[in-house]
Amino acid sequence: MKGDGTVEKLTLRALRVNYSLSPKEVADCLGIEQQTLLKYENDSSDIPIHLANALADYYDVNLDSVFLGPESDLKQKFKERKLRNVH
After folding, report:
1. HEC profile for 23-68?
2. Domain count, the chain
3. What does the pLDDT look like over 34-48, one tens digit per residue?
């Protein structure tokens, strides 16, 4: 949790990397193609809800703590917040 009371969200890629798993390992376990997983790690804004839930269950996190959208959006928000904190 951040100082302002909001929960920091993690991307699908960050969750996988935190568990030291390869895209192939996760995709094989969930019965999907590796390219499908990589696509949704890059931009999860149109991920099917059943797959989002399956990934949240797999990583043992609440779906509310997963950032769903283009990974670039989250990176941009992080940069903006960092700049605000500097000034």
Report:
1. HHHHHHHHCCCHHHHHHHHHECCCCCHHHHHHHHHHCCCCHHHECC
2. 1
3. 999 999 999 998 999
